[in-house]
C-alpha cells in the first residue's frame, strides 16, 4: 500500500531530514516492500513547488536521499509508491504538480475512460503526463478548483463528489499541499489516515522530532521545539495525540497552523470496489505483506 506523509511547519521555513538509508526502521529498509518509487515535494523561498522523485526503491536512490537531508520548506509531502496503475516511470511517481500545488494519493479508482472524457470537458486533460489514476484524479481536482475561482476546498469537494457518483472507487485518500496550506482527505474507510497536532517540545534539551513508520522516517532537531502538524498513513510516533480521520473527513491546515475539519462526504461512493474485485497487481499494491 502506498504511504502518504505530509508536514506543515507554519509560517517559517524549516529543515526536515528524511532518513532514507541509515535508520533501522527507515524508508530505505522498508522500500524493499514498496518497490515502485519514492518522492518528496517542497516549496522554495519564492513559494514555487519543487519535486524530487524517482521510480526507484529508496535504498537504490542515492540522489533522492542526499537531497532529502537538506530540503527546507514550510510544507512537506512525501510518498512511497506501490504501483496499481501505470508503469514504473518517473512521470508516474508521486507527488504530482499542477498549478503550483502538490498532490499524492493512496488508493485505486476505476472508470478511467469516463474520467478521461470528464477531463476533456473541463479542460485539464493536457495536465496529465502519465498513466496513473492518481494524476487524473488530481487533474479533475485542479479543474474544479479553477472553476471555483481558486477555492481549494470547494474544488476538492466538487471533484470527489463527481468521482463518488460516477466511478468505481476503492480508496481516494490523498494529501494536497501549497506553500501555505495542507489539505488531506480520508475517503471512504478503506485505508487509514492520521493527524498529529504536535505541540513544541521543551525549549532547551529537547529531543529531536522523530517521526517514523514502516515506510517513512523524518528526523529534525529544529522541529523539536516548534509546533508542527503531521498527516500520515499510519501513526509515526508514540505520541498520544494521534487521531484517526473519520471516513469522509476533509482536513485543512492553514499557514497559522489553524486546523479545520469537515465531514464533507457522509455517504460511501456509489460504486464501491471490494478488494477481491481488484486485479492481482492492484490488490497487492493496496495490502502488501510487511515483515514483522
UniProtKB/TrEMBL annotation:
Q: Which EC numbers characterise this protein's activity in its record? A: 3.5.1.118
Q: Which residues form the Glutamine amidotransferase type-2 domain?
A: 2-256
For this UniProt record, give its keywords in alphabetical order, as a comma-separated list: Glutamine amidotransferase, Hydrolase
Any one Gene Ontology molecular-function term assigned to this protein's record:
hydrolase activity
The record's annotation in Gene3D superfamilies points to:
Glutamine Phosphoribosylpyrophosphate, subunit 1, domain 1
Q: Name one Pfam family in it.
A: GATase_4
PROSITE patterns, sorted: GATASE_TYPE_2 (PS51278)
Q: Which SUPFAM superfamilies match?
A: N-terminal nucleophile aminohydrolases (Ntn hydrolases)
Q: What is this protein called?
A: Glutamine amidotransferase
Amino acid at each position: 500500500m502506498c504511504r502518504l506523509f505530509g508536514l506543515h511547519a507554519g509560517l517559517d521555513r524549516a529543515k526536515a531530514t528524511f532518513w532514507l538509508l541509515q535508520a533501522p526502521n527507515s524508508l530505505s529498509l522498508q522500500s524493499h516492500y514498496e518497490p515502485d518509487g519514492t518522492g518528496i515535494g517542497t516549496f522554495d523561498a519564492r513559494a514555487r513547488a519543487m519535486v524530487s522523485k524517482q521510480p526507484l526503491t529508496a535504498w537504490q536512490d542515492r540522489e533522492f536521499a542526499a537531497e532529502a537531508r537538506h530540503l527546507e520548506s514550510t510544507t512537506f509531502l512525501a510518498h512511497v509508491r506501490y504501483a496499481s496503475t501505470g508503469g514504473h516511470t518517473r512521470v508516474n511517481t508521486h507527488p504530482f504538480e499542477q498549478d503550483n500545488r502538490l498532490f499524492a494519493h493512496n488508493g485505486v479508482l476505476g472508470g478511467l475512460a469516463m474520467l478521461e472524457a470528464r477531463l476533456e470537458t473541463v479542460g485539464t486533460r493536457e495536465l496529465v503526463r502519465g498513466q496513473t489514476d492518481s494524476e487524473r484524479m488530481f487533474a479533475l481536482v485542479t479543474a474544479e478548483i479553477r472553476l471555483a475561482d481558486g477555492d481549494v476546498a470547494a474544488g476538492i469537494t466538487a471533484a470527489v463528489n463527481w468521482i463518488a457518483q460516477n466511478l468505481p472507487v476503492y480508496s481516494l485518500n490523498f494529501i494536497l499541499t501549497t506553500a501555505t496550506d495542507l489539505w488531506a482527505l480520508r475517503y471512504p474507510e478503506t485505508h487509514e489516515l492520521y493527524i498529529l497536532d504536535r505541540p513544541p517540545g521543551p525549549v532547551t534539551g529537547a529531543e529531536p522530532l522523530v517521526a517514523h513508520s514502516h515506510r517513512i522516517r523524518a528526523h529534525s532537531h529544529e522541529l523539536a521545539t516548534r509546533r508542527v502538524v503531521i498527516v500520515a498513513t499510519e501513526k509515526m510516533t508514540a505520541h498520544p495525540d494521534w487521531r484517526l480521520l473519520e471516513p469522509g473527513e476533509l482536513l485543512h491546515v492553514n499557514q497559522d497552523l489553524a486546523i479545520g475539519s469537515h465531514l464533507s462526504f457522509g455517504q460511501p461512493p456509489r460504486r464501491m470496489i471490494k478488494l477481491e474485485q481488484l486485479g492481482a497487481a492492484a490488490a497487492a499494491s493496496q495490502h502488501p505483506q510487511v515483515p514483522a
